[in-house]
Amino acid sequence: MAGEDRYRTHALGLETMPPEIIALILDHLLPQPPEIGETRPVAYKQLMVDEPWFDFTRCRRGLHSLCRVSRRLSETARPLLYRRVAIWDEKALLLFFRTLCRKPDYGLWTRYLSCHITLSDLAVIREIRELLPSYLDTFEVAQGDGVLIHAVHHFLLMLRCHLPQMVLSEGDFDAVPQGLVCFILMFLIKVETVLLQVPVSDDQPEYDALCFQIEGVMNLFRDEPQATPFQNIHTLLLQGDPELLAQIEDEDCECEIPEVWGAQPRRYASLFASFPKLTTLEVSSDDGVWTTELDEPPLFMLNPNNASDPPPPFLQGIRHIYLHNSVAYPGDLHHLLLNAPQLETLYMAPRGEFPHEAIDDSNSHNAHPEALDIALANHAKHLRNLDVSWEDITGFESLVGPEGRLTSLAQMTSLRTLCVQMALLYGKPSAVLETPLVDLLPPNLVELALEDWWWSNVELVDEMPEWDAARKVRHYQAQHHYRVSALRTLMQFARDVRMRLQKLQKVVLLCKIPWTWVLEGAVPLEFHFENVKSLFLAQGVQFSVKSDEV
């Protein structure tokens, strides 16, 4: 009771403050959602301080408590409570929909929505079916004659009519969770960012029902164009089910691993087309396939004039793509660029080993027809930011470009920021000095990050955590000639930088194998780069060197 009294005293103190000061204070309680790819939170009391969901759940509880103190505080806190909404279980999905049915105005506050359950998962479908009998009678719909209110009435009537059959039947009403999410999005007319957790296995159906429902919404609102939903969504996050991925990737997993696994963004092309302001797409754990080749392409992807013509690019309006934990290879990114002709940002962080079958790379001196280098030269005219990397592409070098190199970068005048592996520039460590680095880079570059990484180092990745001091020393000594070569290249680059790269402001070297440059107790990372840093500073360019955890 003493704790509650202190809280009420503090809240009453807030009551006496000017409203603009209260708003500034409560802004600090606006919860920041975790990054894409995080699993949903465990029980509230089990969350630790450093866990991704800890601050989010505490901020929401604080805002919820303030809503119950007084009407004045509620008027300020409630819009913040609904600004960023995360749904991480079936009960929350139903209750949020119920709240919006009763209070549609609450949906006008939401700018971010994330759903952390896989809507086509049998366990999720079963749980919704079991919860409906307990909650359906508590649903009330706000007064009004709008299209959305009428649609909700029909949806709830359908659920009530078929509830007995729905509870007993398997398969006939599997799309109900997708329908709930569709209606929630219709209520959130000002939402800007949406995260959907999507299947990563063919064992779970894709969200065909959700895509079809959202496609049909435009016709539903043809008489109320001012109330048409989805008009403000500019960012879509497709999160491959992280819990299922964790099971598949677990070395001790006794489960049956599916042949195809990973999120399949190409199957959500109709969502991209249905969100007219969509410009940013983030995907976690995609399956690497970015072609438009589907078993049965949806009607909207077919060319109405000539059915034999290829379908139009399904990423037509997307300007920024971020791939997290991806298995896309250089050839896959070739198709991505083909399908995203307006792309300005391409970021890809690799998942690890590439699952595709090896290609015939005996003629790796020439680029493969589907090489990333060719796509950059021909289909990346708007690209301003490029950050791609791989752990190992041995045997697939021709899918990068001739001799495994991105030769087109030097002609990409639109590129402003670049993060690239040395291996993608030079092909092999022995070629570092053969061509001046300044001649390999885009002419209008502003920021450059170079990853000191070569495919031959991949064998060291798993071994490094077990290295003792003697092994680290042996590796450092063995890399003497490489260090000399790399430093000479960087020194020459610093001298030449203003000859060709007039706009460059920042250079970062990322050392992926720290023991190449570090000798514990004797040689720190920065030791080798003092002269390089001084030369860059003389040219007005900031230089820094970073390493993976040492």
UniProtKB/TrEMBL annotation:
Concerning SUPFAM superfamilies, the annotation shows: RNI-like (SSF52047)
Q: Report the source organism.
A: Parathielavia appendiculata
Q: Which domain of life is it from?
A: Eukaryota
Q: Return the protein name.
A: F-box domain-containing protein
